[in-house]
Specification:
With 377 residues, this protein is α/β, with parallel strands linked by helices. The chain contains 12 helices and 8 strands. It has a 4-stranded parallel β-sheet with strand order 2-1-3-4, with helices on both faces.
Length: 377
Amino acid sequence: MNLHGVSGHPEPSSEPPIPTGSSSPKLKISPKLNRWSMGRALRSGGKLDRPIHRSDNTPRRQVTESKQTDEADKKTTAIDVETTAGKSIYLVSDGTGWTAEHSVNAALGQFEDFSLNRGSSVNTHLFSWVEDEERLIEIIKQAAKEGAMCFYTLANPSMAKSAKQACDQWGVLSVDILGPIIEGIASHLGVSPSGLTRGAPGRVKTLNDAYFKRIEAIEFTIKQDDGTLPENLSKADIVLVGVSRTGKTPLSTYIAQKGYKVANVPFVMGVEPPKTLFEVEPRKVFGLKIQLVVLQAIRRTRAKTLGVDTEAENNYSGIDLVRKELDFASRIYAANPGWAVIDVTNKAIEETAAVILRLYHDGRDTSTTVPRISKRY
């Protein structure tokens, strides 16, 4: 089974095999990594499979592992919501809910330590395309029953007003995310907002040149995933490189949705990267690096998910092999100083993408300082 996800690249035979009779050294994950992983799980409504340690002598609270949550479960109706342990947050939108969801998730990142210390989870429920008052009131009543907090992004002033009144009436703590922004822009521009929802008749349609450019970028990125069609690397706006499990594919997809053509090329021990990679303008190439212990933990989880045998798991996530691959990538980065190298350890995709796009638009011209080499390392 190809754990690296590299198409057409066999595992090298030059590397010494890891003995099948002995397992790789037991993974020792740092407290920082533990707390980061636990915090991410709790913030997203997940539950832990071990007790939460408290500083006092009170009994530990055993939290069991939850089943895998489907993304569609968040997009539910008031009737479908099940009350679970921890605090609940309702996100109500007359559109897709992207603004509300990302704003609240960004804010929740500030409370990971609180969630860990309390051993409690925060459950978010997204209600999108809420365009009639009856459904809006139904959702807010359900929030009141559950003791949830409500965030809403409603472009229609009448709906936003109804949401505020209903939340006050039913004692639901609420925040209007979009309202203050619209008011501020209206004041700055000196014009009144349209008040039209995203799908309302008369709203300017989004099927413009920018939309089709974004679709084209997504299609290009899918075709260029994992080193496919290296002859097209010169056509990419951005090229991501790195060893397996550094997040190249999800990062490529995320950036492509912003209208950039992205290609990604994996670095595999014993497999020379395509020559066309070194012909790409250096400022367009971004190397991804990650801490050893974190990468090993990610790979081990990946291997267990795929259900591979012990030998295959050790050949993919053994500490010595992972270290060699990271060193291999580091040598390539050192030979190409014009490439920006970004540490993705414990970073969300959105964070890494923001750094890449900022550097990309800086327009650094380092082509005169980077050697063009056909053989490396």
